[in-house]
Amino acid sequence: MWQAVLALVLMAGCTHAPVPVRPRTEPPGQEHADQKVATVVPAAPRRFTKGEVLYLRQCADCHGWTGRGDGPLAAVLEKKPPNLRQAEIFTSHSETEVIAWILHGKELAVSVDPTALPHTEAEVTALSAHLKRLPTLPWQEVNAGGKVYDSLCVACHGVYGRGDGRAAATFSAPLQDLSNPSYQNQVGDAELLRIVSEGKNTMPGAADVLSPQELQAVITFLRVLSPGYELYSRFCVVCHGQDGHPPLSAPQDRFGFNLIFQDMPTFGHEYFRTHTDAHLRTSIQHMRKKSRAAMPHFAGELNADEASQILSYLHSLSPEP
Q1: pTM value > 0.85
Q2: 1-19+41-117+291-321, what's its fold?
Q3: Which of 236, 270, 247 is nearest to 128 (CA)?
């Protein structure tokens, strides 16, 4: 039981990210007659700790922003993720044991409720479009921009850019969905760079905390955001790799991953030269209809120090009964 619970850390997600804006009202007796509502003053942006970043990116979908097991994917799982704010979860085993579970995982099938996870043609189209982009993306710059985004932007804009970060609720109006294809087509790189650098409305500018190289990298990452990117990140990246290249080796032979990875295609230029759109869509539909998935293992993505930083972040959250 403990192993199964702690293995779910891999798909957890929580943060007590600072709210990047804070309401301020005039002292009593100094309000304008026609202005009774609070004004919003931008707060200085700050980078997240590495533990926060890793926890959000690797774990948020299932365990939620606050670690209570209420992430967006929790609704489609037959067995709900545990509340990681329970202190006893991390007191019965040593940190070394927990890190080993995070890196190497445990044989744990995740049952998905088929009725709660619709498979629409729009999803297939979006995922297919993202797959075909994989060989064309400058991954070194995308990865660098992703790190900047995770450390500075995710609190408001959310992991996938949909404006659903924890701090988004503090704004009076919904935030722009950065992954919306219409928005992506309407705004140019120069305008995106200006917004990120100088800020817009209640959003503070980041030019004072980011280098020119980081600013350019985060724009490159923002261009990757899309409905297809979100679907691929949630359902495909563990086996196929972020850039379409499967892991070189399986972390655990006894779970059968070696055999699975040996047959995994690489989504490179050659793959798309020899596979039609119809074949690609058929493959996506087949994979998306599977009701069971293997628990992810992060030995290929995280090292022991990074796993320890995730645990440190979990320990920093207020425990609950």
Answers
A1: no
A2: Cytochrome Bc1 Complex; Chain D, domain 2 (1.10.760)
A3: 236
